[in-house]
Amino acid sequence: MAPIDDAKQGLSGIGRVDLRGIEPSSRGWEEARAAVAASMEALGAVLVVQDALSPDLRRALFGRAMPELFALPLDVKRSLVSGHINGYVGPRPSAPSYESVRAWETTNGGAVRNVGDVLWPHGGNPAFWYEVFTTSCSFSFLICLLTHASCCPAFGLLLCSGTVSAFATNMLGLQRKVGTMVLESLGVGQGSLGSHLGSLSYSVRLSHYGVSEAGGGMLMKSHRDPTVLSVVVQHDVEGLEVQAQDGSWLAVAPQPDTVAVLAGELLAVVTNGRVPACVHRVSAPSRRERLSAQFVSTPKDGFTVRPVDELVDADHPPRYNPCDFEGYIRFRYAGEGRKLSDPLEAFCGVAKGP
């Protein structure tokens, strides 16, 4: 597959690239890589046509699992809070209609199982386990599911579906593919690329936006994510908007075969500023509830984020000091960073001369 011909980039729109069947060293890789990189370097965002989410899985995720999750009592959802960006996030002044749940380390079966145990201690929602956490396809996680099969026989049926491993492999592979394309296009060697990919942890955030009382306006104000990359899967209701270089806003229409991949602040650090963190927001153009699912990468515990060596030289001096992820999260959400328009720059940006 080649990049879609009618894709617009730069100031006028977000690049849309078909990555179905595209693999490293295959025909079309270099062309697709160039298109992905051009859009990411311009806006910190690219639209990717993919086959990671089958129609059946999409219907089950947005049609049953997520509605049942967000219909749970508030005290149950609040029991998931375990940090500034983990667990349950409820409505707040900057996003009064927004709530979300993050399942941390979705490639680690134990962590995923713990979230399920809190929400459904008796295995009451097997669909949630399947549709949301199928990224956990390790042997240990399958053993966890089998262990719970006695209290919920439906687990046995769920394990029979080949969609489990397909969703896990393709969604994780899709994000890694985009990250690889971006770094390769900038001249990062395979050694540094492998080290970067090996330093990442993954999670799923499920988001629900209620109907805006005003019947319009913003569901979430403009912001940048404290992540490396986010794959955003929208349901039927529009709302995601990406800011262009000229300050205008580009609407991202929900399409079943297309996801939005957004660069986070930490990718800006990794690329020494060559890829900007995507500025985006969520509008409320219609009086309907909105659901979205994000597959997110952040550094593993103990890893410090810094610019890749190949991207720092005399022509490209370092723009960021090494960034301690946990320290940055505390600064951004519980410290002075809450008051700043660019907390990343304040936390680890290299001071510019007079």
TrEMBL record:
Keyword annotations: Iron, Metal-binding, Oxidoreductase
Keyword check for Transmembrane helix: no
Record GO terms (molecular function): metal ion binding; oxidoreductase activity
SUPFAM superfamilies: Clavaminate synthase-like
Domain Fe2OG dioxygenase: 200-299
InterPro entries according to UniProt: IPNS-like_FE2OG_OXY, IPNS-like_sf, Iron_ascorbate_oxido_reductase, Oxoglu/Fe-dep_dioxygenase_dom
Top-level lineage group: Eukaryota
Family per record: Belongs to the iron/ascorbate-dependent oxidoreductase family.
Protein name: Fe2OG dioxygenase domain-containing protein
